[in-house]
Design a protein that fits this description.
By secondary structure, the chain is of the alpha/beta class. It has 15 helices and 14 strands.
Length: 398
Amino acid sequence: MNIAIYNGNLKPTTFVLRLAQVVNKNHNLCVVGASTKLFKYKHADISFLPTNHNNKLILLFQLLFQLITFLVLYPKIWLHFVAILRKSDKPILTRIKQFLIWSKLIRNKADIVHIQWVSHLILFEELLDLSYFKIAVSLRGRLINSAPLSDLNLTALYRKTFPKIDKFHAVSNDIKMKAMHYGADENKIKVIYSGINVSSFKFNKSIKDSQPDTLNVLSIGREHWIKGYNYALEAIKGLKDKGVKINYTIIGASDSEELVVLRQSLNIEKEVQLLSRVSFEDVLNAMKQADVFLLPSVSEGLANVVIEAMLTGLPVISSDTGGMPELVLHNETGLLFKNRDVTSLIDTVLKFKKLSIKEKETMIIKAYEKVNEQHNLKQFELCFNDFYASDEHNTKMN
């Protein structure tokens, strides 16, 4: 089967590269998107197909070349695409990109186009009622959790297109339910948890101190309202007022003027460190030094950074947002607090401090086992092969 993973550009995320690597074993696969390169190429055994260029002059050259060659090779489809795009009210630049994407997918005989970022459906919506190739869509993170709440155009796009999608991949059951809210057919949604190379992490099952003199709390992630860092800082203030000695480090939020001001106004400048982004190796080192990992997000699919923390043996406290309760089982693989509730977060941190070494070690072992069962690469590979295989004898025809 020929599978095209449409990523928007040819700088795919770790998830997309991991998906491409495991699917490439059993299918003909290429990663598709805009690029500064003009021709199909291979890297690390994965095929990459450039569709369009950001330079307008080169884009026009690509269009002219593709119009001519596609007309020669597929005259009927050429006429159909041109007719569709002439009727469209999208900007001309968008329509040019659409023609280039569609025609290159046809020329590469794609059976399934797997769209990685759901907002890119706007580039394919005119084809959803047609039979050139099947459309699969991945649902994860902000674009399904929060973006449509503030962007009415996205909401309209989802309601218009979701009922027509051939199949969805959701990273959690919570996101699956959100997709159904926009009209996705439950029977067409498969929950596949993100896969990770478990063996590449060094798991430490020993807790050095049940009740350290100073509790070292760690969060990792860019500064954005969705990460809930303001609630975390207010909780640090509350814990300080209760006499708890605490050190809170946020990696990735050094440029946040809002957090700098909030930290100062709460008088917790000594307790809170805002650091810039660091290498993955430095992240792992920071996890080794911390006593507990905190995810204060107000909206989340299923945070990879929590998976990584669990694989290193770092206990986790998380808000109960989104799909997090599917990984952080309260009092079993970690501790949950009520989303956006500072008092609940304070109480949960105090509860964590009171846990014995044995209770914490039992928790991190169960967390490791949960990740190993739910997020291992073999499971990831099997699930995606099954995801595509159901269409192997029932693909749309070009």
